[in-house]
Amino acid sequence: MSTDYLKRILTSKVYDVAVESPLELAPLLSQRFGNSIYFKREDTQAVFSFKLRGAYNKMANLPPAALARGVIAASAGNHAQGVALSAKRLGCRAVIVMPTTTPQVKIEAVRRMGGEVVLAGESFSDAFTHAQELERAQKLTFVHPFDDPDVIAGQGTIGMEILRQHPGQIDAIFAAIGGGGLISGVAAYIKQLRPDIKIIGVQTEDSDAMLRSVRAGRRVMLTDVGLFSDGTAVKQVGVETFRLVRQYVDDFVVVNTDAICAAIKDVFQETRSVLEPAGALAIAGAKKYVTENKWKNKTVVAIACGANMNFDRLRFVSDRAEVGEMREAVFAVSMPEQRGSFRRLCELVGDRSVTEFNYRISDADRAHVFVGIQVSSAAEPAKIASTLRRHGFDTLDLTHDEMAKTHLRHMVGGRSGLASNELLYRFEFPERPGALMRFLNAMNPDWNISLFHYRNQGADYGRILVGIQVPPSDKKQFKAFVSDLGYPNWNETDNPAYKLFL
Predict the structure, then answer these.
(1) Counting Cβ atoms within 10 Å, is residue 234 exposed (0-12), middle (13-18) or buried (19+)?
(2) What is the chain's percent helix, strand, coil content, to nearest 5?
(3) Which of 109, 142, 175 is the last residue of a domain?
(4) Same domain flag for 37 and 159
(5) What is the C-alpha separation between 267 and 99, in angstroms, rounded?
(6) What is the pLDDT of residues 30-79, one digit of tens each?
(7) Which of 75, 274, 408, 459 would you label with 236, given CA atoms 20 to 30 Å apart?
């Protein structure tokens, strides 16, 4: 079977629809990690993913009668686009069953290419079951997204290109694993010509069916899969892909959502391209693997395998990238509810950039603040927490708390019976170190801050919402403070949403 794959890959018909994607050095990452890190840019294909290689190779090898009846596929999106594009090129009908959780960008792309979309189930496995029923009912030919020798061979052409594009030393190739088609094809080719190159599979913590299967010595069925990296959300790997992975793959690395978000940001900074989560999985894995194994001066290739990202998801990615890179730590800090506590906390943070402040007065004695701080290493959050505790601030490190990062940071606040004489203002100020302290230092120390929300969004201007308790007799002085500050500001005290919720 092994020689068969070499022949299948060498004679595959992928180049009717696919291009030889670039193999590009990532200079910023290479310098940061002390290794030569290359991206194999499969996001540059016509459907922004490697999947059209395997789909077309399978369909181009079908007997004319089977092609005439039409094909059916189950896919989270990228394979679907590959099948739809291939069907358009080959002039046949294509029915695509997709999970209901599939990003809209992928659904629309399939429809634009003439594919008939059927939405069924919440994961690939659910969609797969429904597709099998339709296959039998309508006598269509099933084009499997990964567990098919022609599909695997089509994906294997990526390995062929890597060796042609970089004939010199390569220490490892990192590939994302969902069902295993990509890594199986690449490994089957590479290991027969260059067995010295390590093939390393990358999976997410919540969709690691292949790793569990290899450890168990049999194909394991996951009960649930995480949906952030929807392109690799597979409950059970293929029979043939499992066999090939056990035979050829050297190692595995598992990454979390934050690491994927950080990798998406890394690729954007290198290429100005935005990968989808599954597309950035190999990059996240390569970063983690070279760090944990203390690799230096080695050459690694990470397959950037897809860029079908829902635009709406970028908000989440942006928020979590800093945490994934260990550039942001988040804390819950309790302090005495007295004037000056807030300023003292800012002074202890020192020169570090504050990325977020959420606070609402709620207790006469204690104040609870949600704060994000920019850090430069994984060890720094513990040091910050220790410093704050030493100065009398009870501190809880929430950097790895999923609920806090996803929900709590947006929910700090509510109505307060203690917020008498409160004026609510929005301010914009230049996003530079010291701007926040300038604001606090200019304020009358007799005025109490009763609400504060700030989030660094990476823009040139920071935006804060602040509630300040100003006695009626100080209104004139407060107006002078706002005017002298020189920052654009808006009085929101009469805003109906403020009256309703805060």
Answers:
(1) buried
(2) 45, 20, 35
(3) 142
(4) yes
(5) 27
(6) 999 999 999 999 999 999 999 999 999 999 999 999 999 999 999 867 89
(7) 274
Taking the CA atoms of residue 429, residue 434, residue 437 and residue 441 in that order, the dihedral angle to the nearest 10 degrees is -90
Cα–Cα distance measured from residue 334 to residue 126, given in angstroms and rounded to the nearest whole number: 46
Q: Which among 152, 143, 166 is positioned nearest to 20, based on CA atoms? A: 166
Q: Do residues 286 and 236 both lie within one domain?
A: yes
Q: What CATH number does the domain containing 101 carry?
A: 3.40.50.1100
The token duo for 164 is 């042609």
68 sits in which H/E element: helix 64-69
> Shortest CA distance to 155 belongs to which of 189, 121, 116?
189
Burial class (CB in 10 A: 0-12, 13-18, 19+), 417: exposed
| Alpha carbon 121 to chain centroid, angstroms | 23
User: Pick from 144, 143, 154: which is nearest to 9 by CA?
Assistant: 154
For residue 141, give the 3-state DSSP assignment.
strand
CATH number at residue 349: 3.40.1020.10
Q: CA nearest 456: which of 448, 467, 464?
A: 464
End-to-end CA distance of the chain: 68
Residue whose structure tokens are 């009908």: 93
pLDDT digits (tens, 9 = 90+) for 196-215: 999 999 999 989 999 999 99
Q: Copy the structure tokens of residue 329.
A: 């730590």
> Which two structure tokens, joined as six digits, stand for 215?
């450890």
